[in-house]
């Protein structure tokens, strides 16, 4: 067998083969290798220091005799057995214990010397460790998503059209489970962008976190409170942005931040329900419920969410045609009162989902006032009809507990019904000089004297409007009228509409009173329209002095002057409604298309930015505001309930 010689390098503690500087330089990487690592592994490129000195020149023995000569001199002190060995085809013999120990010591010295040279001459070759990411980790991930393979190829019959929209290029055919999830999130964000309030809140939180990290002086308790606030914001859908909102919030007088949502009754618009007669939101802010009464004698309950607004219940009452005041929620929110031009009414229990009809002929049949000449004359003009009794149209619950219900009867009578006992019996009646056109419960505004408050039992009163434009202020406790005055510009035969604010009960026809907490001067609103050639609708605005009892204790007093007359509408007023805190007055006329105006109640000026010429309102038939003031529903003659979001109240 041919024997091949192989050189073995022998290291010595005192004089290793070659100098230590050369060995350390030979172990370093050159710039070309470093650039290659940067391209392949992404390691940042760090140029070597003193490249010319640290580069090792390897000389082949066959090329230069000088290298052979020098190498031979360096190996003069080595034995032949340390340099050569006989290759007999078997594995090399294991080194002896002394030789292994000697070799290990030499290697340790070599590494130690290399480390010393590296620390003195050049920086470390590896990049500094990356900073840990501060992103929030997912709470849970499904391991079954990783092996999924979703086809996005157009040629695949199982690929849907929606999946094709997830491709970034036409060459993509298959997506992994993780990538498919990421692109679905991206597509959802494009269709449903993040709301502005969430972006502002997140930017604010990020700014607070950055300031906290830069300062590094906050205590652990404050950091824990901040983290809890962030977690509460990310896990809550409401309440956080309203946390700092107080009852003294004033709406800007010039512009209104309003946004249209999907129609509240979009699920039944194909049924041709006809005109929207009446609208009523649930009195509790946390219950998004809307009752819609339409011309087909159906009363529908919708859950208002701004997207689908599903239909919850449909009540069909063929014998009770709805009017503009047919739907009224009890202040407690547990019952729904349904009335119309009939001498009876229906109550619907929302919890038990049970409908109850009252007895016929309840109003005006058990009182001495029924024999009054004015009542008989008015009843003779209208006719008895097949039902008998008085119809129930204008009514108003007492706003505090709803224990008392005021109902407008014929001949100028206002019947007081004991609703709290559950019997629905008439306990007393108030008499006006002509037919009742509107009712509203209220209390004396702040700033009146003790004598004024004592003149009205408990400070609560009932305001009624007659057909001859006279306003009556009643002390219900003593059953007497404490003041009576005539609306300026009104005359007998005029059709009148009135509105109520947050403290004005639940009836749609009432005198509007704005609480002093919102307005500097509480006001009373009344609207009237004249049936003449001009047919112009006007709205008179009265001050708080119009609500005070008569100074001379007489029922009849001088007529107060209106603070302002609003003339934004050019046709007769048919709808008039305040929002729940009395800052917005909505007035509309169904006689003209898109005849709707929103008035800032504090400055008594109409909002200039809405509605616009392109707002598709149609002929407005009814209006109502939600209990939280963040939604407004508008019904029209085409059977649609337009839903708008008032973003000023939702922030």
Automatic annotation (TrEMBL):
One of its GO terms (biological process) is rRNA processing. Keywords: Nucleus, Repeat, rRNA processing, WD repeat. It comes from the Eukaryota. GO terms for cellular component: Pwp2p-containing subcomplex of 90S preribosome; small-subunit processome. Residues 1-34, 46-172, 203-232, 373-398 are annotated as: Disordered. Residues 375-393 have a biased composition (Basic and acidic residues). It is found in: Nucleus, Nucleolus. The keyword ATP-binding does not apply. WD repeats lie at residues 459-484. The keyword Repeat applies. InterPro entries: Utp18 (IPR045161), WD40/YVTN_repeat-like_dom_sf (IPR015943), WD40_repeat_dom_sf (IPR036322), WD40_rpt (IPR001680). Gene3D superfamilies: YVTN repeat-like/Quinoprotein amine dehydrogenase. Residues 217-228 have a biased composition (Acidic residues). PANTHER family: U3 SMALL NUCLEOLAR RNA-ASSOCIATED PROTEIN 18 HOMOLOG, WD-REPEAT PROTEIN-RELATED. This is WD40 repeat-like protein. The lineage of its organism: Eukaryota, Fungi, Dikarya, Basidiomycota, Agaricomycotina.
């Amino acid at each position: 067998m041919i024997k091949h010689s192989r050189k073995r390098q022998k290291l010595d503690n005192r004089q290793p083969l070659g100098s230590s500087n050369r060995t350390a330089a030979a172990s370093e990487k050159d710039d070309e290798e470093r650039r290659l690592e940067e391209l392949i592994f992404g390691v940042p490129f760090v140029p070597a220091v003193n490249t010319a000195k640290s580069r090792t020149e390897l000389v082949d023995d066959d090329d230069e005799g000088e290298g052979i000569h020098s190498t031979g001199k360096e190996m003069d002190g080595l034995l032949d057995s340390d340099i050569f060995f006989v290759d007999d085809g078997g594995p090399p013999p294991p080194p002896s214990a002394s030789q292994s120990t000697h070799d290990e010591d030499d290697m340790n010295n070599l590494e130690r010397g290399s480390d010393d040279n590296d620390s003195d001459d050049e920086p470390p070759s590896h990049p500094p460790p990356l900073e840990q990411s501060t992103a929030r980790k997912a709470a849970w991930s499904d391991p079954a998503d990783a092996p999924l393979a979703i086809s996005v190829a157009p040629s695949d019959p199982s690929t849907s059209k929606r999946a094709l929209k997830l491709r970034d290029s036409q060459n993509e055919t298959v997506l992994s489970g993780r990538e498919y999830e990421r692109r679905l999130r991206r597509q959802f964000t494009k269709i449903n962008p993040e709301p502005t309030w969430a972006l502002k809140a997140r930017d604010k939180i990020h700014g607070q976190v950055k300031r906290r990290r830069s300062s590094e002086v906050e205590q652990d308790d404050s950091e824990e409170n901040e983290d809890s606030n962030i977690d509460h914001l990310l896990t809550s859908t409401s309440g956080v942005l309203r946390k700092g909102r107080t009852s003294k919030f004033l709406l800007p007088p010039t512009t209104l931040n309003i946004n249209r949502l999907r129609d509240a009754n979009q699920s039944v618009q194909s049924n041709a329900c006809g005109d929207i007669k009446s609208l009523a939101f649930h009195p509790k802010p946390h219950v998004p419920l809307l009752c819609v009464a339409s011309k087909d004698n159906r009363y529908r309950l919708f859950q208002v969410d701004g997207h689908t607004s599903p239909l919850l219940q449909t009540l069909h009452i063929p014998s009770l045609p709805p009017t503009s005041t047919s739907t009224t929620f009890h202040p407690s929110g547990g019952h729904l009162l349904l009335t119309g031009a009939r001498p009876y009414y229906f109550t619907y229990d929302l919890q038990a989902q049970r409908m109850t009809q009252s007895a016929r002929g309840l109003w005006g049949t058990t009182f001495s006032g029924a024999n009054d000449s004015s009542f008989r004359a008015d009843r003779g003009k209208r006719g008895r009809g097949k039902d008998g009794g008085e119809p129930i149209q204008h009514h108003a619950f007492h706003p505090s507990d709803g224990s008392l219900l005021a109902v407008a009867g014929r001949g100028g009578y206002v019947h007081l019904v004991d609703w709290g006992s559950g019997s629905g019996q008439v306990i007393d009646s108030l008499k006006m000089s002509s037919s009742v056109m509107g009712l509203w419960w209220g209390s004396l505004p702040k700033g009146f004297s003790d004598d004024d408050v004592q003149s009205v039992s408990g400070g609560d009163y009932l305001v009624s409007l007659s057909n001859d434009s006279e306003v009556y202020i009643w002390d219900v406790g003593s059953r007497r009228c404490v003041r009576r005055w005539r609306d300026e510009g009104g005359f007998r035969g005029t059709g009148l509409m009135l509105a109520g604010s947050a403290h004005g009960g639940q009836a749609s026809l009432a005198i509007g009173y704005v609480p002093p907490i919102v307005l500097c001067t509480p006001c009373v609103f009344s609207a009237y329209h004249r049936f003449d050639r001009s047919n112009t609708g006007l709205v008179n605005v009265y001050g708080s002095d119009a609500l005070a009892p008569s100074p001379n204790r007489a029922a009849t007093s001088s007529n107060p002057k209106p603070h302002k007359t609003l003339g934004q509408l050019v046709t007769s007023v048919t709808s008039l409604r305040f929002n729940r805190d009395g800052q917005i007055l909505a007035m509309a006329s169904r006689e003209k298309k898109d005849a709707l105006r929103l008035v800032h109640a504090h400055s008594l000026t109409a909002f200039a930015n809405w509605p616009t010429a392109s707002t598709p309102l149609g002929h407005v038939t009814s209006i109502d505001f939600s209990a939280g003031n963040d939604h407004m529903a508008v019904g029209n003659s085409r059977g649609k309930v337009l839903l708008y979001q008032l973003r000023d109240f939702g922030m």
